[in-house]
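Give me structure tokens for this 238-residue protein.
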Amino acid sequence: MSRHAQDESVRRVALVTGANRGLGEAIARGLVTRGLEVVIGSRSVAAGEATAAALGDSAWAVSLDVTSAASVAAALAIVTERAGRIDVLVNNAAAHPDFGVPPSTVTDADVQIALETNLIGPWRICRGVVAAMRQQRYGRIVNVSTRSGTFSATWSNAPAYGVSKAALNMFTLQFANELRGTGVLVNACCPGVVRTRMGGPTAELSPDEGADTPIWLATLDDGGPTGQMFADRTAIEW
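Here you go.
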């Protein structure tokens, strides 16, 4: 049997952070419908288990707080033991602590929350999965970002959030460059303003619409793009 045939026979396992509601839940649901086994990462075990139950037998939950190194280590150990592998990581969990605040008045506390959740958390999870992905010659890492984290289209009334997402974008490029040629593809995406707790009830897009590009990046064919940022499945300036 060829290596390609072996890879095709494997049921991929995806870990989605912040997947118990909103955009993360929509991403998880889309991956389940595409035949993946999906692990719902959630700070609340009860909320994660409820979401997993709604998604069916192909989903299950794990307690995961991306701001805690111990929580991340424990979650990755559980997933590896139960599923045997992690093929796809979607870093969706995020914090938006400041809104309508100019950079000159944003607090240290808000900066710390944004950086710990939006940058350090995804970084520590990636460190925990890339060795196995590299060894198996397959991996898809999707960092859910935002246009406010780009130099081309940012705005200045959510500075801690924007700066943390700009750092996430650079982190995306750094990991992609390290992993080029290994079969591991690393990309960022802007899902748009989605009707979630963060985006608000009047946002333009439904969670399913916002989830389309992250799902596409999480299931890229071999030879797909890496080290880029996408919106509506189209590479954008960042």
